[in-house]
Automatic annotation (TrEMBL):
The keyword NADP applies. Belongs to the monomeric-type IDH family. It catalyses: D-threo-isocitrate + NADP(+) = 2-oxoglutarate + CO2 + NADPH. NADP(+) binds at K85, L86, P87, N88, I89, S90, N138, G583, S584, H588, R599, W600, D601, R648. It comes from Aliiruegeria lutimaris. One of its GO terms (molecular function) is metal ion binding. NCBIfam families: monomer_idh. Keywords: Glyoxylate bypass, Magnesium, Metal-binding, NADP, Oxidoreductase, Tricarboxylic acid cycle. Binds 1 Mg(2+) or Mn(2+) ion per subunit. One of its GO terms (biological process) is tricarboxylic acid cycle. Pfam families: IDH. This is Isocitrate dehydrogenase [NADP]. Its cofactor is Mg(2+); Mn(2+). It comes from the Bacteria.
C-alpha cells in the first residue's frame, strides 16, 4: 500500500475496557489481516486523544497529535470508509476534569477546564472543551442510519444458555414517575421546512423589555428538514421532583433518577442538578449563599458538592439531617456509598432502566438491600417505554430468554438527526421572555414564552436521512418478513412530521400493510407481546429510542447489549461497524487494576470484524477479505459454541483467553477453507502452533491473575505497561508477533 493512503480498515483507539481489550486483540487482527495484504490502521477518538489534539498550542512539539476525529469525520463521507468503532467515553464534566488532571500530571500542559469562564481566553478554552464533552464523537461519525440486531449465532446461544432474570411480582411497587405537563413532550412544536423557509435561521431570546439577543446565528435549515423546538419549565420540574421525593417516601420505595447526561450533554446535567437541589432543598434554603461561595455546582453531582462543603460542619450537619428525612436512595455502589446523585454520568437511563427491569424491578439501597424503586424520568417523550415494560412484566412475569424472539432496531441518526439537548441549540433561558426560531426569510417558525432557567432545545432531522431510514426499514422488513413498527406518536409534534414522510413512502412502495405506526407505549406493549410469543419485531425508531431500545431489548433477551451487531450503512457508500451497543464499562477497568482480570466480552468486536471484512470484499472486490470475514464468523461461532467468552471471576478465563480462542478458531477456519489455497497454507502452521501451544498459553494467561496491575494512567494509559498486562503469554506473542 502506498504511503499516506488510508488503510483498508480503521480500528478506533478508545477508552477504558474496550481499549484494554484492543491491546490484546488488535495485534491478532493485524497479523491475520496482513497475511491477506489488508492493512488495519487506527484512529484515536479517546477523551485523552481528543483533549491533546484540541490544544496543540499548549503542548511541546513532540507531544502534539493529529485530530483523528476530524479526519474520520471526513472519511465517513466517502465510499472508502470501513471503520470499526468501539465504544468510547462520552465525558461528563467530572470525567473531563479527571482526564485533564491526569494529562497535566503526565506532563501535558493542557489548560484547566474553566468552570466559570470570565476572560475571552477562558471562554475560548471552555468552548473547545465543551466540544469534547458528552456525545462528541458519534454524531461526527454517524453519516448513516443504524441497523442493530443480534447475529443469529448470538441469539441461538442466548436461547440455549439463558441468563438469569429477576422475578417480577404483580404487587411490585416499582414504577416510572414523570411530569404531567410543562415538559419537553408537552411544549414541542415541529415543522417541515419549505423551499421558501430554507436558509440560515437564528435562535433569539427576546427579553421582557423587547431587547433581542441572538443565541445562535447561521443555523442552516434545508428544505425538507424537520425542525423542532421545545422547552422544559424548571419551575414545574422543581415542583415535580419535590413531589416525587415525597411520593417515594410514602410508597416506601427508593428514589432513583434516570437521565442521559452524556448524550444530552447540555439539558440533562441541568435536570440532574435540579434533582440534587430538590433532594437537599432544606440545605439550599438555609446555606444557598455559602454553598455558592464554596463553588458548588449542582450539575456536577453530590460527590463534587460534598467535596466542596466538607470543611463546613454546619452544612454537613444540615445534609445529614436531610438524609435522615429522605426516602431510601437508589445506589450505584452501596459498599462505597456512591448514590444515584453522585455524578451525572453514573446512572445512564439506557443502561440503568434495563438493569432495574431485568432484576424484576429491583434496585439496591444504601444498606445494600434490594427493593422496589420509583424510577424518576421527568420528561415523557420516552419514559412511557419503561413504564409500559414495567406494567407488562408485572402482569405477565419476566421474559423467558430461552423462548423469546428478538427486537431488532432500525434507527434514524444520520447527520446529527434528533440530537436532543446535546448540541449548540440547547439553552437555559437567560431571563423571563421569549425564545424563538427566526427563519432566513424573517418568518418566526417556533416561539415559546419562557421563564429564567427554563431548558429550551431545538433539533433537526434532514430529509435525505429520513428517506434513507425509511428505505433501510423497508429492506430489513423485506429480508426478514418480521413484524415492523414505526415507533412514532401522532400526538407528538415531531413524530407527526415524520409520519408525514413515512405514510406516503409506504404507500408508494406498496407495503403499507406490512408496517404499523404506534406511539412508544403501544409499540412497547406490542413488541413485548410479539417476542414473548417467540416471534421477532423490528423497531423503527428515532435517534433516542435507537439508543435506549438497543440496550433494553438485548439486555432482556441476551443479558447484555455488548453482543449486538451494529451496522451503520453510511449514506455515501462506506461502512461503519460499531461494536456492540454497550459502553466502555469502567467497572471492568477497576477489576482489572485490582486483580488483573478483564471481564470485557469482545463479542461485539468479533461480530463487527466479520462484517467489516465482508464489506471490504463486497465493496472492493477483495476476495481474500471475504475469506477472512467468513473465517472470522466461524471463529465467532466457535467462541459461542464452546463457551469461550470471558468469565466474571478472577482466576477464571478472561478477555485475553477469549482472544486466544478467537485467534485459534480463526486460524483453523482459514486453514480449512479451500477458496484461497495460499491463505490456507499460510494459516495451517499458525493454527497448529496455536493448538500445540494451548496448555502453555492458557497457563501463562492464568498465572498473571489475582494481583494489582499498573497501567500508567486511566485515560491516557502507558502503551508499554498496557501491552505487558494485556499480552502476558510469551508463547502466544511468539506466534502472533
Ligand atoms: P456500559 O459501559 O455499557 O457498562 C455497563 C455495564 O454493562 C458494564 O459494567 C458491564 O456489566 C456491561 N457491559 C458493557 N459492555 C460489556 C462488554 N463488552 N462485556 C461485558 N459486559 C459489558 O455503560 P455505562 O457504565 O453507562 O457507560 C460507561 C461509559 O461508556 C460512559 O462514559 C459512556 O459515555 C460510554 N458509552 C459509550 C457508548 C458508545 O461509544 N457507543 C455507548 C454507551 C456508553 P458488568 O459490570 O455487570 O460486567
Amino acid at each position: 500500500m502506498a504511503e499516506n493512503q488510508t488503510p483498508d480498515i480503521l480500528y478506533t483507539k478508545v477508552d477504558e475496557a474496550p481499549e484494554l481489550a484492543s491491546a490484546s486483540l488488535l495485534p491478532i487482527i493485524r497479523k491475520f489481516a496482513a497475511a491477506a495484504g489488508i492493512e488495519v490502521g487506527t484512529k484515536d477518538i479517546s477523551v485523552a486523544g481528543r483533549i491533546l489534539s484540541t490544544f496543540p498550542e499548549y503542548l511541546k512539539e513532540e507531544q502534539r497529535i493529529s485530530d483523528d476525529l476530524a479526519e474520520l469525520g471526513e472519511l465517513v463521507k466517502t465510499p472508502d470508509a470501513n471503520v470499526i468503532k468501539l465504544p468510547n467515553i462520552s465525558a461528563s464534566v467530572p470525567q473531563l476534569t479527571a482526564a485533564i488532571a491526569e494529562l497535566q500530571a503526565q506532563g501535558f500542559a493542557v489548560p484547566n477546564y474553566p468552570e466559570e469562564p470570565s476572560t475571552d481566553e477562558e471562554k475560548a478554552v471552555r468552548a473547545k472543551y465543551d466540544a469534547i464533552k458528552g456525545s462528541a464523537v458519534n454524531p461526527v461519525l454517524r453519516e448513516g442510519n443504524s441497523d442493530r440486531r443480534a447475529a443469529k449465532a448470538v441469539k441461538n446461544y442466548a436461547q440455549k444458555n439463558p441468563h438469569s432474570m429477576g422475578k417480577w411480582a404483580s404487587d411490585s411497587k416499582t414504577k416510572v414517575s414523570s411530569m404531567s405537563d410543562s415538559d419537553f413532550f408537552a411544549n414541542e412544536k415541529s415543522a417541515t421546512i419549505t423551499a421558501a423557509q430554507a436558509g440560515d435561521a437564528k435562535i433569539e431570546f427576546v427579553a421582557k423589555d423587547g431587547a433581542v439577543s441572538v443565541l445562535k446565528a447561521g443555523w442552516p435549515l434545508e428544505e425538507g428538514t424537520v425542525a423542532d423546538a421545545t422547552f422544559m419549565s424548571v419551575r414545574a420540574l422543581s415542583a415535580f421532583l419535590a413531589e416525587a421525593i415525597e411520593d417515594t417516601k410514602s410508597d416506601g420505595t427508593m428514589f432513583s433518577l434516570h437521565m442521559k447526561a452524556t448524550m444530552m450533554k447540555v439539558s440533562d446535567p441541568i435536570i440532574f442538578g435540579y434533582a440534587v437541589k430538590a433532594w437537599l432543598a432544606p440545605v439550599f434554603e438555609k446555606f444557598g449563599d455559602e454553598m455558592a461561595a464554596l463553588g458548588v455546582n449542582v450539575n456536577s453531582g453530590m460527590g463534587d458538592l460534598l467535596e466542596r462543603v466538607k470543611g463546613n460542619a454546619e452544612i454537613m450537619a444540615a445534609i445529614e439531617a436531610v438524609a435522615a428525612e429522605r426516602p431510601a436512595m437508589y445506589m450505584v455502589d452501596s459498599d462505597k456509598g456512591i448514590t444515584n446523585l453522585h455524578v451525572p454520568s453514573d446512572v445512564i437511563i439506557d443502561a440503568s432502566m434495563p438493569a432495574v427491569i431485568r432484576a424484576g424491578g429491583k434496585g439496591w439501597d444504601e444498606k445494600g438491600q434490594k427493593g422496589d424503586t420509583n424510577c424518576v424520568i421527568p420528561d415523557r417523550c420516552y419514559a412511557t417505554v419503561y413504564d409500559e415494560a414495567i406494567n407488562f412484566f408485572k402482569a405477565n412475569g419476566a421474559l423467558d430468554p430461552s423462548t423469546a424472539g428478538a427486537v431488532a432496531n432500525v434507527g434514524l441518526m444520520a447527520q446529527k438527526a434528533e440530537e436532543y439537548g446535546s448540541h449548540p441549540t440547547t439553552f437555559e433561558a437567560p431571563a423571563d421572555g421569549e425564545i424563538r426560531v427566526v427563519l432566513a426569510n424573517g418568518e418566526t417558525l417556533h416561539s415559546h414564552a419562557v421563564e429564567a432557567g427554563d431548558i429550551w432545545r431545538a433539533c433537526t432531522v434532514k430529509k435525505a436521512p429520513i428517506e434513507n431510514w425509511i428505505q433501510l426499514a423497508l429492506d430489513r422488513q423485506r429480508l426478514t418478513g418480521s413484524e415492523a413498527i414505526f415507533w412514532l406518536d401522532s400526538a407528538r409534534a415531531h413524530d407527526a412530521q415524520l409520519i408525514e414522510y413515512v405514510k406516503p413512502a409506504l404507500e408508494t412502495a406498496g407495503v403499507a400493510d406490512k408496517f404499523q405506526i404506534m406511539a412508544p407505549r403501544e409499540a412497547t406493549a406490542q413488541s413485548l407481546k410479539t417476542i414473548t410469543a417467540g416471534a421477532d419485531s423490528i423497531a423503527i425508531t428515532g435517534n433516542v429510542l435507537r439508543d435506549y431500545l438497543t440496550d433494553l431489548f438485548p439486555i432482556l433477551e441476551l443479558g447484555t447489549s455488548a453482543k449486538m451487531l451494529s451496522i451503520v450503512k453510511l449514506m455515501n457508500g462506506g461502512g461503519l461497524f460499531e461494536t456492540g451497543a454497550g459502553g466502555s464499562a469502567p467497572k471492568h477497568v477497576q477489576q482489572l487494576v485490582a486483580e488483573n482480570h478483564l471481564r470485557w466480552d469482545s463479542m461485539g468486536e468479533f461480530c463487527a470484524l466479520g462484517e467489516s471484512f465482508n464489506f471490504l470484499a463486497d465493496t472492493k472486490g477483495n476476495a481474500k477479505a471475504g475469506v477472512l470475514g467468513a473465517a472470522a464468523e466461524a471463529a465467532t461461532q466457535g467462541i459461542l459454541d464452546f463457551n469461550r467468552s470471558p468469565s466474571r471471576k478472577v482466576g477464571e478465563p478472561d478477555n485475553r483467553d477469549s482472544h486466544y480462542w478467537f485467534a485459534r478458531y480463526w486460524a483453523e477456519a482459514l486453514a480449512a477453507q479451500s477458496d484461497y489455497a495460499a491463505l490456507a497454507a499460510e494459516f495451517a502452521p499458525i493454527a497448529k502452533a496455536l493448538a500445540d501451544g494451548e496448555e502453555a498459553i492458557l497457563g501463562e494467561l492464568a498465572a498473571v491473575q489475582g494481583v494489582k496491575v499498573d497501567l500508567g494512567g486511566y485515560f491516557n494509559t502507558d502503551p508499554t505497561k498496557t501491552a505487558a498486562v494485556m499480552r502476558p503469554s510469551a508463547t502466544l506473542n511468539a506466534i502472533i508477533g
